[in-house]
């Protein structure tokens, strides 16, 4: 590989010194896939620039704990610059506006374009409202740190409002989507309603605070084994979650959710946890797209028409055969993208990506989780819950976050009724 | 004392049941003074309603650690409803708009008026810009949680911006005010510039990132013993803080600070730490006001014209003889206000408040602080720093916050260069 063929004058002010003769790898996105790619590129003779629109990486599997006030936003985010410094990469903050595969440049909303020799597209996907009217306007996703904080802030300020005015003695939360995020939110909110609410809001009636989980298909947690799905549903019901299966959402209104069968569910807050799709912007990049707008790549994660472009994580799909949009596939794809680049740089043949399924987990509440370990046991209850805790704590970046999340979850689940909640500000 | 003379119909929806025959004490403000008052009223046969515009109490002495990314906002704030639940009080969220001493009512921005038998005004003060042109528009105070977050977010996003665009290789922060807050911010920022910045922003030149502390008088930390003041100044200079004494600020501009002598200091961010004054709104309450708009009370903290109204904390001044606007005077006044109410309820004479000065402390940076202990030693260096740490951790509310702050400060000061910073979002 050659170095940048034509160092562009407008790039002179950036951190990326074009005097470096090594091939330049630009990695878009500081999520699971992007970070895994940067880390795995360490042994390869390339210079790496990591790009993200935030200056931190978010540990998405614990966002619902931020939304429900057990953890602080800083406990599950990790500074992208610290990560870059420790892996020998550069960091550039900015949102990707355009990719020009012909010129091999990436344009950001701020600063000069980046020229690449290899590009790893790993900047993920965004909430998919599936065109449901009112969803984008009135429902709250929990996909970014700011969104999790918005849920938290909206929830406390609404409860404080009705407690102050006496306008209502209760409120309903409708969660749309019976995947892991929906189940975790529903279980946690129901538990808070049962334990913390009576202590903190004696003005309100817990019986009038409803937590409803709406799922379009006939089951929650579809990828899990039937035994685990049944356990999860039973645990949710035991906590007082109203489960509505085979219920498609027709419209989201400011204070209700309208189902396809005509039922109107009262909803002072609607949480949207149904799925993700590629950003609209991807269309303009001139790359082949499959279901949900995901970029279609070959088995070595390269785009066939542009072999210097690789895709990893939720935004990519191999031969249009989608992997689950979870941390493990993203991490493994990120690692494989680095492997492919290393092979190309060394003039060796690339290899085909094989996903090693390690299983999947979801928490319902205190002492209650399901863990579907691939080629291993199907765990429920306390054992699954402790496994979930350990796996997530180890997967976090940085010892600070590991320690803070361990303690934050310990305070949540040990203190229960008297536990301290991280209280939000008014929505800005 | 009698119960509410005329239960008002619009109050029926609130948390405050007017059927309770005990005298109703309304405490405005969940700061040091208000919380101390609520806590100290526990043995008295009254019902208590705590009011605050936020649903949490903020531990202001550590806000600068939030502004500089060592602590999360939730680590130094404590849910007001949790506090109320544990002390047998009710909580009402709302901002005080009017106090009507004749009708004995408090109006809030949300919900029905509160009727009181006794009122403890402890809702503090607000940033005082002393009429300096541009200060309110362009300078950043650090007096609330939202303000501390704004400083953090603005700082990271500005550095990321210049790193991305290459427009500048440095930036200047001017801190106005040489009291404890100003000294702590200047020392902490200079230390971050020296240790973390080179690691995280290799694009920038630490020598071009200036930290300037501007003070109008000829000394920093005016209430401290001369030996301690000299130590603090020397420690600031050793960390590379540019100290500008006897420098009054004439104007704050978007990118600079103009001094009275005509000097224009470059300032990509100006932090305002000069002092506080009562909110403008207090004027409309018809209560006697002294210097800085503080409400003038008698020795037992009652307003002479309205003995059922008591004042505690920064917003009050006894016989126009001001106490320092710090945590200790506020806490002791809050306790004394409760004592006065207990005496009146019991038909006993009230006593005069006497401030027990325990001394004062300020931190410059890692292993460096000054502690001016009243009737005790004057400490500098590591010993003062450990004392500061212990005193502040014990003063926090709740074990969760104690543990999290201990660890947050430990990670900051032990990890130093490689320490994780809580990275901000873009300013909203």
TrEMBL record, chains A, B:
<keyword id="KW-0285">Flavoprotein</keyword>
<dbReference type="Pfam" id="PF22366">
    <property type="entry name" value="NDH2_C"/>
</dbReference>
<feature type="domain" description="FAD/NAD(P)-binding">
    <location>
        <begin position="24"/>
        <end position="334"/>
    </location>
</feature>
<keyword id="KW-0560">Oxidoreductase</keyword>
<feature type="domain" description="External alternative NADH-ubiquinone oxidoreductase-like C-terminal">
    <location>
        <begin position="358"/>
        <end position="417"/>
    </location>
</feature>
<dbReference type="InterPro" id="IPR051169">
    <property type="entry name" value="NADH-Q_oxidoreductase"/>
</dbReference>
<dbReference type="InterPro" id="IPR023753">
    <property type="entry name" value="FAD/NAD-binding_dom"/>
</dbReference>
<feature type="compositionally biased region" description="Polar residues">
    <location>
        <begin position="9"/>
        <end position="18"/>
    </location>
</feature>
<dbReference type="InterPro" id="IPR036188">
    <property type="entry name" value="FAD/NAD-bd_sf"/>
</dbReference>
<keyword id="KW-0274">FAD</keyword>
<comment type="similarity">
    <text>Belongs to the NADH dehydrogenase family.</text>
</comment>
<dbReference type="Pfam" id="PF07992">
    <property type="entry name" value="Pyr_redox_2"/>
</dbReference>
<dbReference type="InterPro" id="IPR054585">
    <property type="entry name" value="NDH2-like_C"/>
</dbReference>
<feature type="region of interest" description="Disordered">
    <location>
        <begin position="1"/>
        <end position="20"/>
    </location>
</feature>
<protein>
    <submittedName>
        <fullName>NAD(P)/FAD-dependent oxidoreductase</fullName>
    </submittedName>
</protein>
């Amino acid at each position: 590989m050659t170095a940048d063929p034509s160092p562009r004058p407008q790039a002179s002010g950036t951190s990326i010194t074009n005097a470096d003769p090594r091939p330049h790898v630009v990695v878009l996105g500081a999520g699971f896939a992007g970070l895994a790619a940067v880390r795995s590129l360490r042994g390869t003779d390339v210079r790496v620039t990591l790009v993200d629109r935030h200056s931190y990486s978010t540990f998405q599997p614990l966002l619902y704990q931020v939304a429900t006030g057990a953890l602080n936003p800083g406990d599950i985010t990790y500074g992208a610059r610290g990560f870059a410094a420790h892996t020998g990469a550069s960091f550039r903050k900015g949102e990707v506006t355009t990719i020009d595969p012909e010129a091999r440049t990436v344009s950001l909303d701020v600063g000069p374009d980046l020229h690449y020799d290899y590009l790893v597209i790993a900047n993920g996907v965004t909430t998919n409202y599936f065109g449901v009217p009112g969803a984008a306007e009135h429902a709250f996703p929990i996909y970014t740190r700011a969104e999790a904080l918005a849920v938290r802030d909206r929830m406390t300020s609404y409860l404080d409002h009705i407690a102050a005015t006496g306008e209502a003695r209760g409120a309903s939360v409708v969660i749309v989507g019976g995947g892991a995020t929906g189940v975790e939110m529903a279980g946690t909110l129901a538990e808070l309603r049962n334990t913390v609410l009576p202590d903190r809001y004696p003005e309100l009636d817990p019986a009038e605070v409803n937590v409803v989980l709406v799922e379009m298909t006939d089951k929650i947690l579809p990828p899990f084994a039937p035994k685990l799905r049944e356990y999860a549903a039973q645990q949710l019901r035991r906590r007082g979650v109203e489960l509505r299966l085979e219920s498609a959402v027709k419209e989201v209104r400011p204070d209700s959710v309208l189902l396809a069968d005509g039922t109107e569910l009262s909803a002072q807050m609607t949480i949207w946890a149904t799925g993700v799709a590629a950003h609209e912007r991807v269309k303009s990049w001139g790359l082949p797209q499959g279901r949900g707008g995901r970029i279609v790549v070959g088995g070595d994660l390269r785009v066939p028409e542009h072999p210097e472009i690789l895709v990893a994580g939720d935004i990519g799909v191999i031969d249009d055969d989608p992997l689950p949009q979870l941390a493990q596939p993203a991490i493994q794809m990120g690692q494989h993208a680095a492997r492919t680049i290393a092979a190309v740089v060394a003039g060796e043949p690339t290899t085909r990506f094989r996903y090693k399924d390690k299983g999947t987990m979801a928490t319902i509440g205190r002492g209650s989780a399901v863990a579907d370990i691939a080629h291993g046991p199907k765990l429920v209850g306390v054992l699954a819950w402790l496994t979930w805790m350990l796996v997530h704590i180890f997967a976090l970046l940085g010892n600070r976050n590991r320690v803070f999340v361990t303690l934050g979850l310990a305070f949540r689940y040990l203190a229960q009724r008297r536990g301290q909640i991280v209280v939000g500000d008014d929505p800005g």
